[in-house]
UniProtKB/TrEMBL annotation:
Signal peptide: none
DNA-binding span(s): 50-69
One Pfam entry name: TetR_C_43
Entry-linked Gene3D superfamilies: Tetracycline Repressor, domain 2
Annotated GO MF terms: DNA-binding transcription factor activity; transcription cis-regulatory region binding
HTH tetR-type domain sequence ranges: 28-87
Cited SUPFAM superfamilies: Homeodomain-like, Tetracyclin repressor-like, C-terminal domain
Protein name, entry field: HTH tetR-type domain-containing protein
Source species of the chain: Nocardia aurantia
Region (Disordered): 1-29
InterPro entries in alphabetical order: Homeodomain-like_sf, HTH-type_TetR-like_transc_reg, HTH_TetR, Tet_transcr_reg_TetR-rel_C_sf, TetR_SbtR-like_C
């Protein structure tokens, strides 16, 4: 996989202008098209994909990409934040159901997302940039939904009594590392198997 060495991300270029709030509808659509295309190409081809190629496949001009994302690193960060926002939306939908096992559905999605976007996450880690610092409200919202779903599962005796939300979030982060270590990022069945082994550890002992 052709990955370029990430450079440190200046705070001013990394902060999510991030969100599409305040943009015109057409600019918002263009930005989302770039983010979705970048995420797909990064997952398939690595981080070395040229910005001009991302622009071409997103159906926008190179200037549009550079206007929204002045550096490649700011695009990495925006992709990661966009994926977190989608997970928060999924989590809110699951929280609104009465499924006691919904926490396992959400955690599976979080692990799959981490595996698919491993190259971007590795780049941000190498650049010593923490999405939780840049977009704390998103991280807090996601953790809050996990906590609510964990409480529901615990009340239904579907998870261990001695597990905390902090430990669950640590296990999710550890799953990313385990999947990467097993070189299973490009193999959804293997990544899912590793995730299921980890999730089984949350279930009550016989």
């Amino acid at each position: 996989m052709n990955e370029q060495q990430p450079q440190p991300i200046p705070f001013e270029s990394a902060t999510p202008r991030g969100s599409s709030r305040g943009l015109r509808a057409d600019a918002r659509r263009n930005r989302q098209a770039v983010l979705h295309t970048a995420q797909r190409l990064f997952a398939r081809k690595g981080l070395g994909v040229p910005l001009d190629e991302i622009a071409r496949q997103a159906g926008v001009g190179p200037g549009t990409v550079h206007r929204h994302f002045p550096t490649k690193e700011s695009l990495y960060l925006a992709v990661s934040i966009d994926q977190l926002e989608h997970l928060v939306s999924d989590a809110a939908t699951l929280t609104a159901t009465d499924d006691p096992a919904a926490v396992f559905t959400l955690l599976s999605r979080m692990m799959a997302n981490g595996a698919e976007n491993g190259a971007v996450k590795s780049a941000l880690t190498a650049a010593e940039f923490d999405v939780r610092v840049v977009a704390p409200e998103i991280a807090v919202a996601l953790t809050g939904h996990v906590a609510d779903l964990l409480d529901r599962a615990r009340a239904a005796a579907l998870v261990r009594d001695d597990i905390t939300v902090e430990e669950v979030m640590a296990l999710v982060a550890g799953a990313f590392t385990a999947i990467h270590h097993a070189d299973a990022q490009s193999s959804p069945p293997r990544a899912t198997h590793i995730a299921n082994v980890i999730l089984d550890g949350l279930r009550p002992r016989p």
